[in-house]
Amino acid sequence: MPSGIHNRKRRGRPCHIRVRYLPGHPKAHTKQRIVRAANHHTLPNFIGRYFAPRDDPDEYPMYCASMLMLLKPWRCLETDLKQPSQNWESAFADFLSTAPVETKKILSGIQYFHECRASAMRQTMSVEMVHTLEGMELLPEDGVNDEGHEGERQAMLTEETLTDLVASQQTTREEWHGLLAIEAAKIAKIFDGSESDLWNNIVGSNTTEIGTMQLGMHSVRMTTAENLRNLLLWKEQMTEDVQKQNPAMDTAHTTLDNPATHGDVEMMPSGEVPKPNSATVRYLGDTETSEESLTAVDPTSLRYDQFRAYDIITAHLDATLAGQVPPPLRMLIHGEPGTGKSKAIQTATEHFIHRGARFMLQKSAYTGIAASLIDGKTTHTIAMISPRKDQSVSAESKGKLQAHWKHIQYLVIDEVSMISKSFLAKLSRNISIGKMEDGIQTSRTIFEEFTTVVTLKEQMRVTDPVWQDFLQHLRVGQVQERHIAMLWTLVLTNPKCVETDFSSPPWNNASLVTPRHRVHRIWNDVALRKHGQEAQSIILECQAEDTIKGQPLTLRE
Ligand SMILES: Nc1ncnc2c1ncn2[C@@H]1O[C@H](COP(=O)(O)OP(=O)(O)OP(=O)(O)O)[C@@H](O)[C@H]1O
C-alpha cells in the first residue's frame, strides 16, 4: 500500500507521488518509487524476439505465459502468474475473463504485428507469383491461332516454364555465395579450374565410343551397352535400397502382425536372380564419404564415461527383456564434439542386436547425414512431420505412425542440439500418436523428465590442443579474442591464412561443411568432376524422378 506520501507545497510542477518499498525490501530505508502521472506514457522496449503469435497452437502456451508476465501484476514469478494446478492456457483464460478493456487493447496491439507480417508475406508471395506467371510464355490453347480469342488465353505449363520457375526461385545472392566459395577454393588450390572442362577430356578406356558431341563445356556421348546395363542395375539397387530404408513406414510391407506370413519362404522367380557376372554396383558411400555409419567398438574399449552411458542403457534393456517394468529411461549424453557420444550409441546398438531386440530401438537425428552416421532415420521421417504449416495428422498418417511405433520402446536422438523446443514438442506429439498414448507433453515437461545425465569428457577425435581449447570454450559460450584471431588465420580469403596443401592427405579428403544449399550443390558439382578427372571415370548424371504414392508427378504437381 502506498505510504509516505509527500504533501509539501513547492513551486513549479507538482511533485509526483512517492511510495516507499515494503518493509523488508533491501532498499526500504534508502529509496522510494515514483508513481507516474496519469498522462505519463512509457514505451517498453522488449529485448530479443517479438512475442509469440496467439493463433499458433504450438506457441500458444508460450504466448499465454508471456502475456501474463507482461500484464498481470506479480512479485514472485513462480507463484503469482498461475496456480500450480493450472497450465498457462487456463491461467491466461482466467486472467482474461476479468481483464479491463485497456488490457485487451494492449493484447490486440501485440497481435497486430503478426497480422501485419502475415499480410505482408501473403502480398509478397502473390506479387512474386504474378511476376513468375507474367514471365511465362502465354500460349494459345491447343496451339490454335488465338487471334480474337484474348479471353481464352491461359498460361500453359511446360517443362521449360517449370525449369524457369525453379530457376526464378534461386536467389542471386545464394548463387553468388556458391560461386565465391569456388573462387576461394581455387585460390587455396583445392580446385585448379580445369574441372569445368572435365567432360571434354575424358576418354573412356573400356567403352566402345559411338559418337561424341560438344555441347558447351560438357561433351555428350552416345551410351554403350555396358553403360546401359550399369544404369539399369543401379536403378534396381536404388529401388531396393529405398524399400529397405523405409519398410516400417510403408504399411504394405509391414508383415510383423500378419501370422499368415510368419515363417513364409518366398521363392524368387528364376529370372530375377542377379547374374553373377553382371557389372558390380558400388556406392561411393561404402568407402569414400563421411556418411558411412560409425562402427561399434568392443564395450571393453569404451572410455570410462562412455561405458557408464552404455551400462545404463544396456542394464535398462536387460531389465525390460527380463519382464521387469523399469521406469522409462530419460537420459542425456552430453559432451563436446568428438568425445564419443555417437560411438557409445553404436556400441549400445550392438547390445540390442546381441539380445535380439534391435526392432525395439529407433535411432534418429534431425539431418540425414547425422542420422546415417548412426544407421538411423531423420526425425521428420520417424514422426512423419512434414514442413507444411498445417500440423494436423491425417488418419492415414496415424495408421502408419502406429504401425511404425508399435514395437519400438527405445528412441535415441543424436545431435539433439539441432532440435528446437517447438520441433521437440511436435516430435513428442506425433510419437504419442504412434504409441497411442494420451496426454501430449509440451517441450518443458519433456526436458524436465531427463534426469539421467552422463557427460563425456575425454576427447576422442580432436588432438590439436589449440582447436580443443577453442571447442571447449565454444561449447559454453565463452569464446575469447584469441579464438577469433585463430579462426581468422583459417579463412582462405585472408592473406594471412595459414598455408595448407589441399592436394595431399588429410586435406585432400576434407569435407566442406556449409549451411547453404547453393554452396553445397555448386561445390559438390565441381568436386565430382574433379573426382571423375582423377579417377578417369565417366560421370553419369541421372535426374531423380519424384513420385507421389508410387505415381509420377503431373506437371502441375
Ligand atoms: N572408445 C573409442 N574407441 C575408439 N575410437 C573411438 C572411441 N570413442 C570414439 N571414438 C572415435 O572418436 C571419434 C569421435 O567419436 P563420435 O563421433 O562418437 O563423437 P561425438 O561426441 O558423437 O562427436 P560429435 O558431437 O561431433 O557428433 C570417431 O572417429 C570415433 O570412431
TrEMBL record:
EC class of the enzyme, as a word: isomerase
Its EC number(s): 5.6.2.3
Cofactor dependency: Mg(2+)
Record-level Gene Ontology MF annotations: 5'-3' DNA helicase activity; ATP binding; ATP hydrolysis activity
Pfam families in the record: PIF1
Catalyzed reactions: ATP + H2O = ADP + phosphate + H(+)
InterPro entries reported for this sequence: DNA_helicase_pif1-like_DEAD, P-loop_NTPase, PIF1_helicase
One of the GO biological process terms: telomere maintenance
Keywords, comma-separated and alphabetical: ATP-binding, DNA damage, DNA recombination, DNA repair, Helicase, Hydrolase, Nucleotide-binding
Domain DNA helicase Pif1-like DEAD-box helicase: 331-431
Similarity field: Belongs to the helicase family.
Protein name: ATP-dependent DNA helicase
Organism: Scleroderma citrinum Foug A
